[in-house]
Amino acid sequence: MEILMIVAIGVLFTVGTYLLLSKSLLRVILSLVILSHGAHLLLLTMGGLQRGSSPLLNLDSEAYTDPLPQALILTAIVISFGVTSFLLVLGYRTYKVHKTDDLDQLRGSADE
Length: 112
Hints:
CATH architecture: Orthogonal Bundle
Number of strands: 0
Oligomer: single chain
Number of helices: 4
């Protein structure tokens, strides 16, 4: 199961890096979302993929899952949702003001 997760994380980081290098502002925002999801899966995989019950219900120390990586990922998901919504509003406002989402034109270095 870990191998499948590692491959999925690699695909997410590859797609996120590819989109980050594009010229469109919306693609850059989507790449940050994809990279954050890849980081969430990386944290979950590094915490160990185990099957078991809650540590409060089971007295065996070997048969429970660690709740700390799940709590960290839940917090990271909430923070990335807030950052994503802020970036989408910022991108929309930039498009409304400048009438473009091309990063070269926004930078002012494009030949017109």
